[in-house]
Amino acid sequence: MELFNLAGRVALVTGGNGGIGLGIARGLAAAGARLVIAGRNAAKNRAALDALSAEGAAAIAVEADVTQEADCLALVARTVERFGRLDILVNNAGTTIRKPPETFTLAEWNGLLAANLTSAFLCSNAAYPEMVRAGGGKIIAIGSMMSLFGAPFAAPYAATKGGIVQMTKSLATAWAKDNIQANSILPGWIDTDLTVGARQQVDGLHEKVLAGTPAGRWGVPADLAGTAVFLASAASDFVTGTAIPVDGGFSAQA
Ligand code: NDP
Fold first, then answer.
1. For 32-91, how does the pLDDT look when each residue is reduced to its tens digit (9 = 90+)?
2. Torsion sign, CA atoms 37, 131, 235, 213
């Protein structure tokens, strides 16, 4: 359908070498976008690129640490060098540490802020001039249920994910004049490398997620693809500053 067609568009997905990022990358590629996926781990980059290429995507993988401003700038430069433009940025890279707030060191706090929040700020600013040059763009940030709720094991993570939503609203208001739409997706509990750890570290989490999710299952990375395509496409041209839960109803249930 033309409204959702991403042919001719170029998307950069941070953390696109696995989990939710790869699920989104697959969705964008299926809608016609050319792709740049970025992560620190060269082997994961290679494996994800092989999978995307085998599925027919026009894609490259770039090694980058998005906590570093120089890497974010280089990532955008490489995207434009390879594909000539940048239309869609997915700020997806992120990580967590699960433990009580009083046990976090300052270095751990700063590390999570850098990985989950500063990274999105740096990549958005790096992408901005190219989106202006392209006549507009789409920024999609990955928040979390922790953008809405707290948890005893997630103080810094929840701070970053609340920050993602508020920063994205601000980008939306600042850059609407440039025809750039910025929105967040708030995934529920999705089965990825990140949550394999959570199931081991948080007692009873698996059952709690099943009980708290009206859909009655964990999500999978492919569940995020449809909303990402919507937010990356002309279908969402009058949608900006929102945060859309993709959570099987988790946030709707008291
Ligand atoms: P994964 O651990 O599978 O993926 C994380 C991705 O981020 C990897 O591709 C990793 O690549 C990349 N990454 C992490 N740090 C950096 C960095 N400094 N520079 C570049 N890339 C980095 O987890 P998910 O797919 O689950 O998580 C993706 C996003 O979704 C995160 O922001 C997470 O907070 C969020 N999320 C996840 C939920 C879930 O239930 N799984 C729920 C809500 C939100 P590499 O290791 O190669 O650097």
1. 999 999 999 999 999 999 999 999 999 999 999 999 999 999 999 999 999 999 999 999
2. positive
Is-catalytic flag, 157? Answer: yes
* H or E stretch at 140: strand 137-142
pTM recorded for the entire structure: 0.98
- What residues flank ligand 1, with Cβ below 6 Å? 14-15, 17-21, 38-41, 44, 64-67, 92-95, 115-116, 142, 144, 187, 189-190, 192-195
Q: What are phi and psi of 4, to 5 degrees?
A: -105, 5
Q: What is the residue extent of each domain of the chain?
A: 2-243
Task: Give the phi and the psi of residue 249 in degrees, each rounded to 5.
Answer: 95, 5
How far away, in angstroms, is 93 Cα from ligand 1 center?
4
CATH class entry, domain 2-243: alpha beta
Largest Cα–Cα distance of the chain, in whole Å? 51
